[in-house]
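Q: My collaborator sent me two sequences in one message, no labels, and asked for predicted structures for both. Can we handle them in order? The first one she listed is below.
A: Yes, handling them in the order given. First sequence, followed by its structure tokens:
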Amino acid sequence: MSRLRNLLLINEQPHGFGAGAPVPTSGVSGEGGEAGGGSAAVAGGSGAAGTPPTDMLIGVDMNDFEDPSTIVECQNFECFCRGLRGTYRGVNYCTLPSGQFLRKAIRKEYRTLTDDERARLHNAVNRLKSSKVYDHFHALHYHYSYGSGIHGGPAFALWHREFIKRYEFALRLIDPTIAIPYWDMTIDQILPDPKDSIMWTADFMGSVDSNGYLNSGPFASWVTLEVTNKANYSDKQIQERTVPIQKLGKKRIMRKLGSDFGNTLIADINITRIMTNSSIYLIFGDGQVGVENCSSLNWLGSEGGTLWIEKTLENIHGMVHQFVGGMGGDMGEFQTSVGDPVFFLLHGFVDLLFEMWRQLHQSRYERENTYREPNSRCHISEHYLDTNMRPFMFQGAYIKNKDGLSNNYTDQFYEYESRPSCNVKNCSSKYLFCDNSKNQRHCGVKIKVGGNCSGLLDSDGPCYNGWCRNLDGT
């Protein structure tokens, strides 16, 4: 069977196919990618024993970044409003000196942003990078990636919720209209080959060359932060230089899309398994595997010869790190992952799933008070509810992990626009389409020119600026 591709649209439809006429295409599996060398991120990995002994960012050149404004520390809307010299008139009602209203951020799916909204976002991210504040966020995540409370335990969702909120604040200091978009990769995952999504083109997150280096798009010129590999060594060993120092990070962003183990995007089945389960163990999971009464991976048995595992919120997020970064790419290793702006789109989606589960299964009171019991066999003490959420402070004191459960995040700071749906025309964006080729209708992201469109209906419009045809044009 021949593989069908998105052929560039010149002026009009090819002769012989009327508008709206379904053209079923042949289903052929996608191509594999190339692999590279380097460290790989494994969801739940705890790294070296013990937490960073100090909030000084060991293992990175302190001259490579600038601290953001203390405004990003705000824990209520009034603080954020007044930090921008605005006039506070109540929650979600602030007038800036320019006369512009400051409101809650509305987080939308990345591909549903208007062209102007996307351009403003890219501009703000690039300004944050040029000011070296972006690399401050990279350095923070790097420093706490192993042996702390941000991975491998129940505080994963809480720490990253605060982390991306502060990043969003930093962007809004540049442009108050900005909100972090989320990347709903289920609409990429349904494609014959998710690597052919327009996500990976110059208008969005950029394309890569044959070696995996970013060579187009808004972030192609970035020089990434160089860090010292601390996955196997403690900060004390690195600081005292008693171990070999291996540098991570490249001069440019590197991706190895879909090239290695665990290289799958989050699919509907992963979300359904979490959303239909009221157990907090899938939301506040552990990094331990095979330890009795710990929750990270539970074998569900064999279905059709395939062993299925029940994945926690942290586990399914780890799959996406692997899909984008693979072996050797920035997203494939927790220490370098923030160097790729895709990181914040992924974690916007993780936070959305976290909030969806909270709204579905918990009362307002439960959302702020239900959490895992301390268990040193399953996770280190940095994941306990009353532990400081290092390095995050407000008014000179550390906030606690329990603060990450607060309803204030979505009451005062941001809310999510609904995920793309076929109930809205064109799934609410010219960059999306409604896939009618399967039993259940589902929004999909459009396919780049030359991409695999096998098995999709041409009448659904899956190809961006093109038509689904054989390579010879038939």
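Q: And the one she listed second?
A: Here it is, processed independently of the first:
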Amino acid sequence: MLQISSTEVRNSVSCVSLLAKKYLSIVATSVPCERLFSEGGTIISKKRNRLSSERLSQLLFLNSYFQSNPNSETLMEKLLEEEN
């Protein structure tokens, strides 16, 4: 029969508790959401008012990717060269 000591149980619960706090916590700020809406307002304009929601989502994703990756400009240049 398998016996588990109370110390082992406490250690396991403590470990699970730490993991839950790290990966299951909710961000208590609306800044990322507000930033996304602001960027969406910049993309949608009087001249670009017929973009589909899917295309807008793709543009916002690319904008976020290129802002967060320092080497994104060289990647974009490579992609454009391959296209030509």
